[in-house]
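User: Second chain of the day. Same drill as before.
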Amino acid sequence: MMAELLPSAAMYTDWTAVILLLLTAAPLAVVVGTAVFFIAKKPKQPLR
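Assistant: Same format as last time:
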């Protein structure tokens, strides 16, 4: 019903999804990437 009154409503929803994806997925990817970097950089210790 709202889409009939406001043709750009569907496009607004699409951009909202893109913004929410960037606000959640991008920082999470940075955190995971940083953790992987420091874990890989840590020197290996021989098993006893």
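The helical segments are 2-5, 9-41.

User: Great, on to the next one.
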